[in-house]
Each structure stands twice: as C-alpha cells, then as structure tokens.
Amino acid sequence: MDTDAWLVVGLGNPGPAYAGNRHNAGFMVLDALAARAGGRFKAHRSRAEVVEGRLAGHRVVLAKPRTYMNESGGPVAGLRGFYKVPAERTIVVHDELDIPYGAIRLKQGGGDNGHNGLRSITRSLGDKNYLRVRFGVGRPPGRMDPAAFVLRDFSPAERKELELFVDQAGDAVEDVLSTGLAAAQNVHHAR
Fold this sequence. Notes:
The protein is of the alpha/beta class and 191 residues long. It has a single domain, classed as Rossmann fold (3-Layer(aba) Sandwich), CATH 3.40.50. A hairpin with a 3-residue loop joins strand 2 and strand 3. Helix 1 packs across helix 5 and helix 5 runs antiparallel to helix 6. Strands 2-3-4-1-5-7-6 form a 7-stranded mixed sheet, with helices on both faces. It is globular, with a radius of gyration of 15 Å. The chain contains 6 helices and 7 strands. 37% of the residues lie in helices and 22% in strands.
C-alpha cells in the first residue's frame, strides 16, 4: 500500500447479538463505506475485518476490529503498523453519548470521554492524535446506566432515520479525506 493511505476504523462489538446496538454505530458506518468502495470485508491477521479500496480519491483501509469494544486498541495498533499509517491519517468512527441522536461531530485528538473503545485505542497507540467521527446516540433516559443504553438496539423511532444518519457519517469520513478536517467540520457541524 502506498504511503498516503488512510486507515478508517469503525468501532462496535462482534456478532449478531450486538449488530443493532447503539454501540455499533461505527460498524454500521463502515459497512456503508465498504459498499461505497465496492468491497467486502475479509479477515485480517490483526484481529480485524478489512476492505482495501478507494474513497474520495484516496486509498483506504476500512476496518472493523473483531474484538469486543474495550479491546479495540490491539487490532487498530496492528493495522496501523501493518499498513504504516500515521495517527493523522487514522479515522475512528464511534458512538457518542454527549451528542444528540443523529448529529455528527468531527475532531482530532482529545480524551476518551469514558468511551472504552477510544481508551483502548489511545492506550495501544500511545497517541491520541487520531481523527474521530463521532456519531451522536444521545443520553440515556432517566437514570439508565449509559453502559446499558449503548448496548441496546436503536429504538423503532430512531431506526426510521438511522440509514440517513449513517450515510451522513459516511459523507463526513469522505469529506475529511477530500477536503480536510476543518472544511469537513464546517459542513457537518452546521447541520
């Protein structure tokens, strides 16, 4: 792979029991991006499924770790090493509790905000300077435990717009690739 490749990682938990969970928003976005790139996920020795292809005119490696969310760092570090992709060309797509449902926010670096997947990645990479596409899932109702909330499927009302929001998050990834973070933020934060 050439040196200007990008690594785009979607976070989630493996297996059909988790497929519709809010915590799997990252996997949903990666599935949409793989369809856009015309690829199918294949097992990679880094404990992830990958698609190598092109998006927005750039070579990309799309990846879904096959580990549970809180162990995402190992596969991400393995992929970064294998494909020799630096932090500034690594994009992690993940669910975010502190953003309203369906809102997309983009940033580079920062803390993990209690997100176990991000914590694992930052620890494994020894670097928090990767890009993030944050998919808003909203706060849990009442006093529901946030951990229980993200492990529940999107509600029937939420599912009505889920495909649209997944597509918008995919657009955000492509905009980061084609125009850079600041320009992509101007587009997606205005929504």
